[in-house]
Amino acid sequence: MTQAEPLIRNISDTALLAAVYRARETVRHDALFRDPLARRLAGTRGEQIAKSMPFSDRNTWAWVVRTYLFDQFIEEQCRQGVDMVVNLAAGLDTRPYRMSLPATLRWIEVDLPGILSYKEEILADEKPVCTLERVRLDLSDVSARREVFAQLGNRAAKILIFTEGFIIYFNADQVRVLAEDLAAPATFQRWILDMASPGLLKLLQKNMNISLSEGVSSLQFGPEEGPEFFVPCGWQPVDVRTPLKTAARFKRLSFGMRLLSLLPVSNGRQGSRPWSGVCLLAKP
Ligand SMILES: C[S@@+](CC[C@H](N)C(=O)[O-])C[C@H]1O[C@@H](n2cnc3c(N)ncnc32)[C@H](O)[C@@H]1O
After folding, report:
1. Where are the alpha helices (DSSP H) in the chain?
2. Cα(166) to centroid of ligand 1, in Å?
3. Which atom of ligand 1 is nearest to the CA of 141?
């Protein structure tokens, strides 16, 4: 008897899902961004994964608005003179091809070897608008990543890090140490990340069912403290934007979610309330 291969074979397959939603956004008449390479990158496997996750499919707005908010922050930071951008857990992100970025900007993508090789093969004939390098690295390997961060830190003056759809897969201790490692190089000056409240984490664990080993959900990080979690690690939240409010502004929500979006927002402790934020952190 042969055992069928699971639809989500490893953590990198979640990158296909993100590409599916960017591809769908691209063909909307009111698209918040266009990513012409996303369809090819998502492939039929990405669509199969999306179909197997009806909860995620019903909440496409959350993926799309997250990307939109990261785009906004990145553009603002580039205007303020960032000379290197480091995309940790870049997956199938194509910002160096689709965004209007300074040609002198150095852009580094970090992810696991398999997904980067898949991406490179598909994008072989495409030209990025700035200098682009890819680093194959397991970000849970602490000593290897410290070495990479130290090397990158020496190559530019003002570096922006971002992690989109990544830290939720680490537990709180792993995120704490990662944050401290990112705080170490003096030139790592800004960090954009997205994060969930404990309430949203629970909802996602129940509905997204991304389980990669023995029934354990791979979704883990949703700290009680909210963005303040990062303060003892050397990072100060300076701007927190809420995808729900943004989605309401662009009329992307169902009636029920629209009602929820009318509640006043705070960016502190959320308790059991489902909340997500896209946060810009800086060194104090
Ligand atoms: C949900 S995808 C997000 C990808 C991309 N940032 C985006 O928004 O489209 C999560 C990504 O995290 C990467 N990832 C997960 N664990 C990792 C690790 N230990 N080291 C490096 N990358 C990792 C996966 O390969 C995948 O590309």
Report:
1. 14-26, 38-51, 54-58, 60-79, 95-98, 113-122, 142-153, 172-183, 198-208, 243-249, 255-261
2. 5
3. 19
- Over the stretch 73-84, which tens digit does the pLDDT of each residue have? 999 999 999 999
Q: Output the six-digit token pair for 201.
A: 């984490």
Q: What is the pTM of this model?
A: 0.95
Q: Read off the pLDDT of residues 153-209 as tens digits, 9 standing for 90 and up.
A: 999 999 999 999 999 999 999 999 999 999 999 999 999 999 999 999 999 998 876
Pocket of ligand 1 (CB under 6 A): 11-12, 14-15, 18, 89-93, 111-112, 115, 138-140, 164-166, 169
Q: Which atom of ligand 1 is nearest to the CA of 115?
A: 25
